Every structure is written in C-alpha cells, then in structure tokens.
Amino acid sequence: MKKKGMIRMDNYQRSGLFHKVRLPFQITDYGPQPLVVDIEEITERNRAYRVALWTGEHLQLTLMSINPGESIGLERHNVDQFIRIEDGQALIQMGDSENQLTFEERAGDNDAIIIPAGKWHNVINIGAEPLKLYSIYAPVQHPYGTIQQTKSVL
What we know:
Blueprint: E1 7-9, E2 35-37, H1 39-45, E3 50-55, E4 60-66, E5 75-76, E6 80-87, E7 90-95, E8 103-107, E9 112-115, E10 120-125, E11 131-138, E12 147-148
Parallel strand pairs: 1-2
Antiparallel strand pairs: 3-4, 3-12, 4-11, 5-10, 6-9, 6-11, 7-8, 7-10
C-alpha cells in the first residue's frame, strides 16, 4: 500500500501497489520525503554534471554525468562516500595526500567505489560516452536542491 507522502518514480506498475508516474519526470531534490526510484534509469537519464536527488538530515544521494575526458577533480571530503557507476568507464584514483595518489583502479558498469572520509580522490571518465554515476554521502555534502549543470558552475 502506498504510504502518504511517499514518492514513487518508475515507468512500470508493480502489482498495483504504487501509482504509475509517467516519464519524463523532473530530476529534483525529493528529500526529506520517502522515495522509491529506479536508480539505474534516473542516473542514466541525468544530463547535469551534478544534481542532488535526495537530501536528508544524515544522508544525501547525488547523480552525476561526467563528459568523456573530464573528471570530478581531485577532492577530499570529511565524510564517507559511496559511488556506483551505472554506465561508462572510469579511472579511480585515491591517496592520503593530493600529491600521493597510491590507489589507482579502473571501474565500469555496475562497479561500486567506497571512499573513506579524508581520502583524496578523483574519478576520471576514460570512456567515449558520458560517465553516469550516483554518489551517496553520509552525512550530507552539498546544499539541499543542488543542481550543477556543468563542473565549472557552483
């Protein structure tokens, strides 16, 4: 049974338990309301560099689309981060300092990357198509409602 306030976004009906929401749907920040979403489809449809899909008190889900040859840029967060690649090929780099990235691994479709708090890291699109991924931060990393169309726009 659909709970009051729950948002259901998918392109198919499941046993009549949820109302069908037709595509296209708006990619926006649905937090802190309950959300059920086809994460693979919405991640692959996202064309913005970064958009917050759900921001709660202690957790945030963002979608990213990184163009071929581009990267997220070398960065470090004070929070743990989970990244899942839905589509594309990436080079993952991590290390204890920005000048000493001792971890380097290729990643692709359906791979997950765990980045501990305090680690310098970069995700580089090494494929020919946009790299589609989602990222989970705990706690929240970006302001509620973040929509960043390109890397250079904050």
